[in-house]
Specification:
It contains 13 helices and eleven strands. It has two domains: 5-200 and 286-309, TIM Barrel, CATH 3.20.20; 219-277, no CATH class. It has an eight-stranded parallel β-sheet with strand order 1-9-8-6-5-4-3-2. A three-stranded antiparallel β-sheet has the order 7-11-10, with helices on one face. α2 packs parallel to α3 (49-62) and α3 (49-62) packs parallel to α4 (78-87). It has helices at residues 5-10, 27-35, 49-62, 78-87, 101-109, 121-129, 151-161, 175-183, 205-213, 236-246, 251-258, 261-266, 291-307, and strands at residues 16-18, 40-43, 67-72, 92-96, 113-118, 135-138, 144-145, 166-169, 188-191, 219-222, 230-233. The longest helix is centred in the C-terminal third of the chain and has 17 residues, at 291-307. The protein is α/β, with parallel strands linked by helices.
């Protein structure tokens, strides 16, 4: 069994986190990943407190295993969502899109394990000093909000910089990626793109088909000029957004153009007007599977790779 010290800290069986993808990571997917032995994560995204509360209750009807909530710090509802996770005694909070320190004292006092997503060594150090249980070092290969550094570059530098466990994210879709992350010093991985095609993932069929058809060069990053870069599949929408950005459109105009685009992709399957967030690893995602099959394949594949390392090292 592939198990790391972080598994014991969180009470999970396998060192696999499911990414907190907005409009995608709901109770259905999160519960299935937790049931499979990983850490399922509900994305609070831009939703209000009551939506999140309902999702937490639904997840608890489906599983009694540990789970997490991803709090997107840019959300207009971040303050009320931060309180909901305390009220509902959520075991783990994962944060994204910002610096979570203003919420961390309250979460930690409530016994919540806090695991911020970081894209730099500097932020990793800040949150570790503030009491983070672990950090997710996310490379620019990821789908959704991204930083500048690749996973291969970022993870070992974060591992060297902090004294808390590190979870690697970005460009991981099979056992080879998991094994590589462990060799870089990570104690677990966070996977998003591969779970887009999980049976329990409730995104539109159009979304799943686009992921399954994707190649190695099927994604693009936009939003660099706004300070909030995002990676998505190359579609009519992302092409139009990139054109606007190249023409010097203001951040306000770009924000207006993108409003609602993720929901249109995830829920409506609108291939013309939707933003289909996806990581560069999509070219390796070739089949629909259950969440359990995905988690098991990641773990068993890593075990096979690690046990065979003697072929290369004497």
């Amino acid at each position: 069994m592939l198990k790391t010290p972080l598994c014991d800290v969180l009470g999970i069986e396998k060192p696999v986190f499911q990414g907190g993808m907005a409009w995608i990571a709901d109770a259905s997917l999160a519960a299935a990943v937790s049931e499979a032995g990983g850490l399922g994560i509900i994305a609070a995204m831009n939703a209000d407190a009551e939506w999140l509360r309902e999702q937490i209750h639904e997840l608890r009807r489906l599983t009694d295993k540990p789970f997490g909530v991803n709090v997107m710090l840019m959300s207009p509802f971040a303050d009320e969502v931060a309180q909901v996770v305390i009220d509902e005694k959520v075991p783990v909070v994962v944060t994204g899109a910002g610096d979570p320190r203003r919420f961390m004292k309250g979460w930690l006092a409530a016994g919540i394990k806090v695991i911020p997503v970081v894209a730099s060594v500097a932020l990793a150090k800040l949150v570790a000093r503030a009491g983070a249980t672990a950090v997710v070092a996310e490379g620019t290969e990821s789908g959704g909000h991204i930083g500048e550094l690749t996973t291969m570059v970022l993870v070992p530098q974060v591992v060297d910089a902090v004294d808390v466990p590190v979870v690697a994210a970005g460009g991981i879709a099979d056992g080879r990626g998991v094994a590589a992350a462990l060799m870089l010093g990570a104690q677990g991985v966070q996977v998003g793109t591969r779970f887009l095609v999980a049976d329990e993932c409730t995104v539109s069929e159009e979304y799943k088909e686009l992921v399954l058809k994707a190649k190695d060069i099927s994604t693009r990053a936009t939003g660099r000029t706004t300070g909030h870069p995002v990676r998505a599949l190359k579609t009519q929408f992302s092409t139009a957004y990139a054109r606007l950005e190249a023409e010097g459109a203001s951040p306000e105009k770009l924000a207006e153009f993108g409003t609602g685009a993720l929901r249109r992709a995830a829920k409506d399957g609108d291939v013309k007007n939707g933003s289909f967030l996806c990581g560069q690893i999509a070219g390796m995602v070739r089949e629909r599977q259950s969440a359990r099959e995905i988690v098991d394949d990641l773990v068993e594949g890593a075990q096979e790779v690690l046990s065979g390392v003697g072929r290369w090292v004497r």
